Amino acid sequence: MKITFLGTGTSQGIPIIGSTHPVCLSENEKDKRLRVSVLVEWDDYCYVIDCGPDFRQQMLNAKVSKIDGIVFTHEHADHTMGLDDIRPFFFRQGDIDLYAHKRVFKALKKRFDYIFTTKTKYPGVPNVVTHVVKNKPFKLGNLFVTPIDGLHHKLQVFGYRFSDFAYLTDMKTVPDAEIEKLQNLEVLVVNALREKPHISHFNLEEALAFIEKVNPKRAYLTHISHHLGFHDDVQQKLPKNVFLAYDNLQITI
Ligand SMILES: [Zn+2]
């Protein structure tokens, strides 16, 4: 299985428009972060988790020419606003499969009414096939994927386990029964916003405590704010099996 980090930044991305914060001004490529998303590839399958405002650029950066579907964690704008840019995939492949909680589809139908409408569509509007995700394993390609149910402040969010890889973002609370589903992981990806506590995200300390509890072979931090600091400085402070993810990082499991 190959994982590509398409984006590792928090909702505004890094650099933030107009910001003069040193991290936003950094020339290190590892300090430039598009909105969070990963590409998960195995055998001939290729799925994207989330579809934020940087989706188009991310598909170009990773040279993706075919996707088998998009799996959503939740409906916030930084995870969904790129949906219109599935058009090139739709033109080549036909209807695009989307996987999400039914509440997320309700939000998407409001924002992208012209995609989901059953009436006559404007020419060039993509078609999608919706697959409602409940908190039980579902099939993607030849693999059963297990949802991990958590809370982003009070909003329900799904993380996903694909075989020995799990991706959790925008988590603040994960019940013990869900942590049970994360045993024996090769790679865990989890959000770590900054050092200061935040109402809806793990801060660094909470992310590291979570990683210790789950005990994967290695862990990667994502959904990062400029307040966390420079990539190279933060990396030095992390335990030896924990890595700060950065855009375009690829790992094989
Ligand atoms: Zn987010």
TrEMBL record:
<feature type="domain" description="Metallo-beta-lactamase">
    <location>
        <begin position="34"/>
        <end position="223"/>
    </location>
</feature>
<dbReference type="InterPro" id="IPR036866">
    <property type="entry name" value="RibonucZ/Hydroxyglut_hydro"/>
</dbReference>
<dbReference type="InterPro" id="IPR001279">
    <property type="entry name" value="Metallo-B-lactamas"/>
</dbReference>
<protein>
    <submittedName>
        <fullName>MBL fold metallo-hydrolase</fullName>
    </submittedName>
</protein>
<dbReference type="Pfam" id="PF12706">
    <property type="entry name" value="Lactamase_B_2"/>
</dbReference>
